[in-house]
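Objective 1b: paired records.
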Amino acid sequence: MKVILLKDVKSLGKKGDIVEVSEGYGRNFIIPSKTGVPADAKNLNTLKLQKANEEKIAAEKLAEAKALKEKIEAVKLTLTVKVGKDGRAFGSVSTKEVQEALKKQAGIEVDKKKFSTDVPMKNLGGYDIDVKLHKDVTAKLHVSVVGA
C-alpha cells in the first residue's frame, strides 16, 4: 500500500514522501494516527499543489532577500562612540547599536541576530559585518566607527 506521509516517521520517511508500507501497517497505524493518507489521485494532486506553493513562497523569499541585500550593501553606516584620551572607544559597538543605526540612517529593519562580525568593534575605523538574510544570501554592511 502506498501512503503519503503527513508527518516525519522515524524509520519510514519525511513529511511529503510517498512510501510503500504493508497493508495492515497502513490501515491500522499510519492512517488512523493521521501520520499519512492513502496515495490516491486526489491526495497526490493535493501534495503536488502544496509543493508548488511552497516552491513559489521560497522563490519569493529569496527574491526579497536579494533585493534587501542590494539596499544594505549600498549603505555606508556611521556610528559615533565616546572615546578616551588615547583614541580608544569606551566598550565596543554591539549588534543592537548597529541595528538601530541601520534603521535610523537607512530605514532598513533587520533582526540583530542576523548580524555577525569576526572581530569586536572596540577601536575606531571601518568594519565589514556579514548580514545573513537567507540561507543562500549574505550581505556585507560597512560600518565606520568614529569618535565623539
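Objective 1b, second protein:
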Amino acid sequence: MIKGLASKLKKKRQELNLSRKMVAENIGVSASVIADYESGYGEPSLKVLMKLATLYKCSTDYLLGIEKGTPTQTIDVSALTPDQIQALQSLIDTM
C-alpha cells in the first residue's frame, strides 16, 4: 500500500467537487473502483494514476507522497567484486 494515497485521492476529488461517478466516467473505471482507491482497498495502475493526476491537476509525485528533496537510497558496493557490481547493475537495469 502506498502511504497516504487513499486520503490524497479523496481530498483532491472533493476539492474539485467531483463525485466518484464523475471521476470514474472520466478515467474509464467504475465508481466502486474509485471508492476502493479512496478507502485503501485497491491501488490504481500507473496508467490510471496518471489519469487521476491529470484530472485532479496535481502531480503523480504528490499523490505518491514523493516530496522534493527526498533523499534517495544508495547501496554501498565497496565490498563487492567488479563482477558482483556488474550483476547488481544488470538487475537494476531490468527493473
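The mean pLDDT is 89. DSSP finds six helices and no strands in the chain.
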